[in-house]
Amino acid sequence: MKGNSSLGLLGFVVRKYISPFVHKDRYRRYYCSGSHIKDHSKAMELNRKLRSGPSLQDFIKTSNKSSDELHEEHEEHYMTQYTSSTHSRKVYFETYGCQMNVNDTEIACSILQKAGYSRTLQLTEADVVLLVTCSIREKAEQTIWNRLKQLTALKKRRPKHEPPLKIGVLGCMAERLKTELLERERLVDVVAGPDAYRDLPRLLCLAHGGQRASNVLLSLEETYADVMPVHRTPQGHSAFVSIMRGCDNMCSYCIVPFTRGRERSRPASSILEEVRMLSDQGVKEVTLLGQNVNSYRDLAEEQFSSSELNPQLSRGFKTVYRTKQGGLRFADLLDKVSLIDPDMRIRFTSPHPKDFPDEVLQLIQERKNICKQIHLPAQSGSNRVLHAMRRGYTREAYLELVENIRKLIPGVSLSSDFISGFCGETEEDHQQTLSLLRDVGYNVGFLFAYSMRKKTHAYHRLQDDVPAQVKQRRLEDLISVFREEATKVNMSLVGSTELVLVEGESKRSSEELCGRSDGNVKVIFPKVDLPVQPGKPQKDAIIRRDYVLVKITSANSQSLRGHALIRSSLRKTKTSEHHLIEDTVSC
């Protein structure tokens, strides 16, 4: 073994020594032979060119075509097959859940229209069906699952000579249940989360090519500020305008931070531009939207970035996150929006009770076109349950806020959200919630039994230990007490005159019209012709988008009834009432 190693080492040394001589000999035999002089010259020329570097002409083939013709010939379009064939494709939307989903539908529609799609209101005409979904409760998701099965059956019955029907799920359920939708159940072709609507053209391109496609990535920046939604409100009497997306509150029961991401506010300039456009179209009511709408803060507005403008919370309220500093706040935005059109009603939803400093309340009181109606979600009347929910306030702080609101905005209408049967809720907790309903007295209420959602704090840390039948019984208690109190609140309006924005015919009778009061309560009244102008004999029918003063004659927990007196407007309400008094005196 040792001898073999010595021989190997000797061979290596010999090869190392004679190698230079061998290479020199090869060089002389190849490059110095007469037959390779030409090759050597070429090599030297190439070496010279490489040192000096090639020019642009070395890479361009001479052509007589113009630069425009060359650009057109070589230009490659993104998704050529998709963009050239979508002009005949029609998309049908079905929207479920909250007002944010209505706005999401309008955003998605705008994006797809620019990609060549047209919207249809007839399911039978559709090439693509998109469901804009909600994940807030299990019942909402089950509704979507049932609908997907129906649409899958429709897809199978589609005639062979027509392009295959494509089905997509958008919104919160898409983000939460992507795997189940695409792989396990295989009921859909496209899945797009709330921050992925810009990607819909690409996703649908893949689907038309026979693939299943998804994008459920959440964004820290996406607000669709540059996308002008396609508003489809009948005759344009009202519209929703999104001002922010996501939520940072992290309430223990809520799935929203996990399906819609962190809070980010849309630039104020974009919001104001959209509201002006809606005003020019004759829209009479705009609702500003956000999961936590009154925590709006446009940090891009440098002129509002003073350190003096610190966040102001309602007294006795706190947050679980570090609040943002500076920027243009909700009160500033509400001020600017309300000045665009004095005859356009302004509402906002859904707020959090913590973000109602006095400056917001005072602005609501001062401006005639900001509705004197506030949504004030309580969720529970029990301090123990509120703590488990991570709401950031106590029952006492909430009641103090209600008192302050009613002091600063006399006659304000309040609405709220309540959950029955949250984790660990006892009968005593339930009774405290019932007493809060009685103490406050709401015009409108949104009441639900608790439905645990995966990913939430409650799912990981708490036990869903209230039996379903107990949740349902407690929910029925909440509904009963709410209706009793709402009836009392609405009955107090009998004999008053309410300014009503007409929405159209009543659902129950074509001989009646309906609309909403400043307090967002439904008002129903008979169809009549009213004077075109006060004091003039000429009369005309009341139409959608008219403001009408209605004398309230009866009420229940859901609505008010009365008869129309005169046409009016937000700016002319006092003048119209004065004319009514004059007419009454002259009679």
TrEMBL record:
This is Mitochondrial tRNA methylthiotransferase CDK5RAP1. Its EC number is 2.8.4.3. One of its GO terms (molecular function) is metal ion binding. HAMAP family: tRNA_metthiotr_MiaB (MF_01864). It catalyses: N(6)-dimethylallyladenosine(37) in tRNA + (sulfur carrier)-SH + AH2 + 2 S-adenosyl-L-methionine = 2-methylsulfanyl-N(6)-dimethylallyladenosine(37) in tRNA + (sulfur carrier)-H + 5'-deoxyadenosine + L-methionine + A + S-adenosyl-L-homocysteine + 2 H(+). It holds the Pfam family TRAM. Its cofactor is [4Fe-4S] cluster. Residues 233-488 form the Radical SAM core domain. It comes from the Eukaryota. Belongs to the methylthiotransferase family. MiaB subfamily. Residues 89-209 form the MTTase N-terminal domain. PROSITE patterns: MTTASE_N, MTTASE_RADICAL, RADICAL_SAM, TRAM. Residues 491-566 form the TRAM domain. One of its GO terms (cellular component) is cytosol. Keywords: 4Fe-4S, Iron, Iron-sulfur, Metal-binding, S-adenosyl-L-methionine. GO terms for biological process: regulation of protein metabolic process. NCBIfam families: miaB-methiolase, MiaB/RimO family radical SAM methylthiotransferase. It is an enzyme of class 2 (transferase).
